[in-house]
Amino acid sequence: MRTHGKKYNGVFSKVDRTKQYSIDEALTVLKQTKTAKYDETVNIAVRLGVDPKKSDQMVRGAVPLPNGTGKSIKVLAIVKGDKEKEAKDAGADYVGSEDVVEKIQKGWLDFDKVVATPDVMSLVGKLGKILGPRGLMPNPKVGTVSFDVANMVKELKAGKVDFKIEKAGIIHTVIGKISFEDKKLKENFLTIMEAIWKAKPASSKGTYVKSITVSSCAGPGIKINPVEVETALR
What we know:
Number of domains: 2
Number of strands: 9
Structural class: alpha/beta
Radius of gyration: 19 Å
Low-confidence stretches: none
Shape: globular
Helix content: 25-40%
Number of helices: 9
Largest sheet: 4 strands, antiparallel
CATH architecture of the largest domain: 2-Layer Sandwich
Distance between the termini: 45 Å
């Protein structure tokens, strides 16, 4: 049986596991649960009342966070011709086509996001088994396949995040770093929640957002009242 140290148990005791906090209360408690010496990432887990096994109830999307994620994102642009210069000028960390595909096939994965133009997707398709399981496959549904290469790269570098419901019916994504001011974390949180609500499938019945939990990557989960969040977005 795993045991936690006194420091972790002390932090855990600050969270009422039976309570659904308001957004402001949750962020206040979140700051009190910091245990790591590094700047922890703040995550949210949103449980939805949909069946992800049904194709018409898939929930996914992407949204630029107003205050970024606090993380430096390495972007790979798989493009060719004039689009290579466009990608470099926009701030892409790595640019190429056949050469980078071959490199990835040999095990290179030193990047966080991948964008591509529609004309190279047959080439990118060779990487499906490598990039797919890692959530890195370019996809027009989350805005990573387009001829507007400059915009795709700039949005990702600025802190655009994508979200997708998992088999268990939960969306996991990030809203920033624990060092962010509460106001900035709240703005990022509401931006993502609005995008998730807008992505609600037409076939979804009953309660759409069942629960929301916020946590630092090393801290306990703090429940947020979904009704209060929905009211804040109106």
